[in-house]
Every structure is written in structure tokens, then in C-alpha cells.
Amino acid sequence: MDPGATAGNPATTLRKRPAVSIDTSRRGGDGASSREPARGPERGEREEGSMASAPAAEEHQGSGGRGKGEEEEEEAVSEPMSPAGRLFRETHFNCYIVAVIGLGAPVDVAAARAGLEATLVRHPRFSSIQVKDDAKRHGKPRWVRTTVDLDDHIIFPNLDAAATSADPDQAMEDYLSSLSTAPMDHLRPLWELHILDFPTSEAASAVVLRMHHSLGDGISLLSLFIACTRSAADPERLPELPPAAPRRRAGPPPLSAGLAAITMWVWSYAVLAWHTLVDVVCFVATAWFLRDPRTPFMAGSEGVEFRRKRFVHRTLSLDDVKFVKNAMKCTVNDVLIGVTNAGLSRYYFRKTSDANNDRKKSQKNFCVRSALLVNIRKTPGLHALAEMMDSSKNSGAKWGNLIGYIILPFHIAMHDDPLEYIRQGKKAAERKKTSLEAVFTYWSGNLIVKLFGMKAAAALCYGMFTNTTMSFSSMVGPAEKVEFYDHPIVYIAPSVYGHPHALTVHYQSYVNSVKLVLAVDDAQFPDSHQLLDDFAESLRLIRQAASTT
């Protein structure tokens, strides 16, 4: 971490430990790093100002003049950035993923360093820097392998001992919030592991993994993290994940199935085409002019992507979620969407309770929309990801941001029956399953980049985000207890910041719990814990109603 990363927090300093450098560049010579500590770009700076040029990258890797053979070798250890990866470097989408991992034991630094050396730092993205070579690549950035110095990436914040003793949960929350405005040195691989070695109400200690979103999409990065863990029951085995739902549509039925079956199959594709067309028109209109109604959830002013965020989380029961799922004959995601409907509604109507009756009546039932990122590439299995971190093996697994966007509606309403929120969530999710909106937005985004450049694609995405209310995501974690470099994991709480939304809702399952994580504009949501309470109370009421059906 660069010296300027904690400039705004006089109570925080960094402790340095003996250096351990890992050469992953496969270059000739000793591969030693010769760079001096450099200050990373401030949040919100332009991509051109935060990406290493080719000469700077050569100095960073300790190389002098290069001949033809060296240039050919560099080609073998570099690759171009994907369009989505480049988007996450644009001014209004300079996004970072921050994941809090609660541990069941104090941090064993030596074990953590050994684990990082054997796994994460050997992954191509986590051992590469972003280089922009105007002469050779026409300004297009690429990934170049480099030497990883763990001292640059393992952060030991010295927090106020009185604060961590008096209210450790608040101390951790405040530290996480400070990371949302802390710079990261872009002359180094774009990730950090922060060690918070003090007990909180949920865990004996915690580590915080902060990564630039250009390293990969959320699902791929979470899968990579899980591939670094091992089963607590059998430390030699990778964890077990719940089976993934099939993603392919059924092929045409045989002629022997009859006319009715063939007609239904044709009709399903007609519905798919129609829903895709409607969603595409809605997406384009949203990017240009179609704006959600003003609510307490929407960003209050421009520039929210640069402002300080607060990350709060609450543990929910996965057993309760599954009970509702079985009672309502739907999916876990349907339930989570329904709980979000209910939680947002409770918060909204309490916040607007001082409004006049006419306004309350006119806004008793309306929709706000979320931007939902969808990974359209099948995520590599844990074994394939583990092999990506083994230099002696070639897994053939593909990596990169291969994501499309979906605009998902949430209903703000007052219902006497709590299960109505689940029915609305199920209806919205099933409607999106019969659309190729995510595939269209991915390919159309690539086409816009090729025809008009990255700035045009970023402007389109910016319009879509600023005209919608929030971001939403949910991810599946291990179905069994796991260990992170011999440390038992208690919870996993990931989130994201750097995009133009004041509210991001994320659900992360792990064993028999679901971690609800909210990333909120610190100034706009001073009562963020009350919003957590609304979600938890909504699930309780829904679970209670489901038990009587």
C-alpha cells in the first residue's frame, strides 16, 4: 500500500515486515524489483493517469533495453485487457471489490504469507500490472506479468487500541469505510490484504481483501478466493459448492413428441425474442432518458461514485430462506428478491411517514430498478482455478470480465400479506429468465467499444446507472465450513464501490447462513443499520407467514 493511502487517518500507520518477493514475470535475469514506493492515483483520477506506460513498466520490472527476443518473450507473458476490464478503469466506473472475511482464530501471519505465495500471487491477474503502450498497442492497455512483493500487498493498520477495545465492530466498520477513498498504487498488482487482528462480535479476527474490479467479475473472483480455501473437515480437499442450476435452454423436441410439444417449444422461443426486444428497448431508453422516481435510495447528487461509502452487514438464516423457498415453490434468489422488496418498502414508508396523504397514496405501489451484473461465461470449476495458480499446470480455464447487464425491478408497496413480496420477486425473476438481455448488453457493449471507443461505452453505462436506483447481486458460497490458509472462516461479506449508485445490496451464502451486505453513501444513509434491521424484520415476517400456509 502506498504512503498516501492512510493520509486522512492520523490514527492509522503501517507496520513493515521482512520482504518476500515472488517473480512471476518469467523474464530473464534475477527478476528483482527495482522500483521505489510510489503513490497511487487518487479515487476518481483518469485512467490515463493511473496506468503505467510501457517505459515505466520496464523500469518497474528492472529491465533495461530490450531486443527482439525480449519483446517476443514479453508477448508471451502479457495479454490485452477485456473491454469490461477497461470499462472499470474509466473515471465514473473506477470500481473496487472489498471482501471482509471473518476468521475463527487470530491471524497467523506466517501461515497467511505462505498461503498467498502458494496460491493467489501465482494467478496471472494477481501477478500482473496494467500497461498502456501507445506506440505498439494504439493506446489499448494490456496485462503484463511482474514481480510480486508481498510487503506491498499485506497491510497491517495500527488502529487506535482504545477504539478497537471499546467498540471493535464500529472500529472495523470505520476502517472499511476509509478504504473506499484510499488510493491504490497502480504500478503494482491491484490487490491488497488488510489484517485486522482483533476480535469483534462475530469473529476472532478478520482480513479484508481489496481488489480492483478490472481483475475479474465478482463471481470469478469469489470462486478464485474459494479455490484458495480448503475444507475444514478435510484440509487436503477443495470445498464443496451447491450444485449450479442448468443454464442451457432445452433443444427442439423429437417429432415423435407431437405437434403440441413442438408448438410449445416454438412459442417459448417467440416469447424469448419478444422479451429480449422489450428489455433491449427499455435498456436503451434507460441509458438515455428513462429515470426512476426520486426516492431516499437514489443518489442525492452527482459524483456519488467518488464519495465515501459505508459497508454494513447482517447475518440471516439460510434455513429460513430455504423454508420460504419450499413453501412458495420458488428459488433462493426469488426469496432474496422478495425480502429486498419488503425491506426497501419498510424503510421507504417509514422515511416518508411525514409526507402528506395525497403523496403517500400516489406512491403506495411503484417500482425502482436495480442494475444487476450477470456473468455470461460459465465460471471455471474450483479445480481449474486451483490449477491456474499452479505454474506447473495449464488448466486451460478462461479468465476475465465477461459480463452483461440486467435491469431488475423492485416493488415498493404496502402489503398486508408479507408473502406478496415473494410472489412479486418470483414474477420478476422468472420474467428475466425468459430474456437474453444480459447477452445483448455484453455483445452490444463490445460493438460500441469497437465502433466508437471506450468513452462512448462508458457514457452509455453511466446513463444506465444514474437513471436506475441501486445495484443488486447475490452469490453462492461454500456449502461446508472452510479454512483460509489454516484459519477457519466464520463469514464472507463482499461488496463493491466506485460505481454511480448510493445503495448496493449484496447477498452471500456460506454454510447455513446468508450474509446481507449493504454499501451505502455514508452521508445519505446515516441510518444504514436501520435499513439492515428492516431487511431482517422483513425476512422474519415472511418466514412467519410461510409457516402458516
Automatic annotation (TrEMBL):
Catalytic activity field: a long chain fatty alcohol + a fatty acyl-CoA = a long-chain alcohol wax ester + CoA; an acyl-CoA + a 1,2-diacyl-sn-glycerol = a triacyl-sn-glycerol + CoA
Topology within the bilayer: Single-pass membrane protein
Classification of source organism: Eukaryota, Viridiplantae, Streptophyta, Embryophyta, Tracheophyta
Stored InterPro entries: CAT-like_dom_sf, O-acyltransferase_WSD1-like, O-acyltransferase_WSD1_C, O-acyltransferase_WSD1_N
Pathway entry: Glycerolipid metabolism; triacylglycerol biosynthesis; Lipid metabolism
UniProt-recorded name of the protein: Diacylglycerol O-acyltransferase
Residue ranges, annotated region (Disordered): 1-83
Main subcellular localisation: membrane
